[in-house]
Amino acid sequence: MVIWELFGDNNNFDVWNSLLLKSEDYNIFQSHGWGEYKSIYGWLPMRYLAKDKDGTIVAMAQIFIKHLSVVGIKIGWVPGGPIFCFPQSKKIELAKIAKALIEKVEKLSGNVFIRFNNLLLNNSDLANAFNRYYIKPFFKINSGYSIWVDLREPIDILNEKMTSHHRYYVRKGLANDIQWKAGNNVHFVNELLTIHTDMVMWKKMKSLKSNLNDISNLCRTLGDNATIFTGYLNGNAISSCLVLTFGQKAFYLMAAAGSKARKINASYAMVFNLFKYLKEKGITCFDFGGINPSSNVAEGVNYFKKGFGGKIIEYLGEWEWATSDWMRLGGNFAVWYRGRQL
């Protein structure tokens, strides 16, 4: 028997995170800080614990709920969750935990549409368990694919795993006198945004636009879990990236290279030095962020990320549940429409 219940001390940052870190599949997007960040944009974080008959935690889920202006309609988003891999949860059928969560969500009043984006590695057993109570979406937000780099390996081994092309451009980038610094204060934020704006104008892709408030809010709410890693040439910021860390895992969120950086291959040197920096911080797993094998637009990003020698992985990914078919159709239409605006 599994019972989901609301986390009793919703404002207790440390307790939620410490419980989350006891799982194998923990991630920054289910952390307390990420919930506080999303709350700035009108999402209500609802944090749930699943316990077995002995009161032992077997799963966790941070669900973001937004009440639409239409009376009685709620949409939910569960990035990186639910979290299933606790020691005791291995003794319980995953489908039972998934079913109990839906039974809890059903008690929310009104019409509900909820989308999960689970970061467990995909396999048939997991997919079958989810398929009993959730449905695959018509339109996805993410590709479901990413690249993992094992930072437990020595830096020379990581270098050897790169393609010959990437090793060549890493060497060229490292030959320049670039200074690398890490931080998340307003100066780092402004530099990242300036470089990013330059890159967006060069690529002519409005979907890549970011803004000062968004990055500032992220760094403020996540604190030390948000790091901007920036390269300086002659005192000028030329290449930068934003990385989120939680426990021993790091997640590559965004990056930018200015015109000077593109000429001297600074982005390649940035990733190589980022690996070294994260290793020194005790990070063992680096998630390079999404790739999209089926998108021609993403070919350049895919090529850049894959060349660093990580392992291409497929997540269990996106699933959904709704109180009615029309709610599900409406939710998918909203996802499709949002995609067309980018």
Defining traits:
alpha+beta, globular, 342 residues, 12-stranded mixed β-sheet
Please characterize this protein's 3D structure:
This protein has 342 residues and is an alpha+beta fold. 38% of the residues lie in helices and 29% in strands. The chain has 12 helices and 12 strands. It has helices at 13-20, 32-39, 94-105, 124-131, 155-161, 164-174, 186-203, 212-222, 259-264, 266-280, 299-306, 325-341, and strands at residues 3-6, 44-51, 57-67, 73-79, 111-121, 145-150, 178-183, 226-233, 236-246, 249-257, 285-291, 311-322. The chain has a 12-stranded mixed beta sheet with strand order 1-2-3-4-5-12-6-11-10-9-8-7, sandwiched between helices. The mean pLDDT is 91.
Q: SS-based structural class?
A: alpha+beta
What distance lies between the first and last C-alpha atoms, to the nearest angstrom? 44 Å
Q: Please give the number of β-strands.
A: 12
User: Unreliable segments (pLDDT under 50, ≥5 consecutive)?
Assistant: none
Number of helices: 12
- Shape annotation: globular
- Strand order, biggest sheet? 1-2-3-4-5-12-6-11-10-9-8-7
Order of helices and strands: EHHEEEHEHEHHEHHEEEHHEHEH
Radius of gyration: 21 Å
User: Describe the biggest sheet?
Assistant: 12 strands, mixed
Determine the mean pLDDT: 91
The portion of residues forming beta strands comes to 25-35%
**How helical, in percent, are the residues?**
25-40%
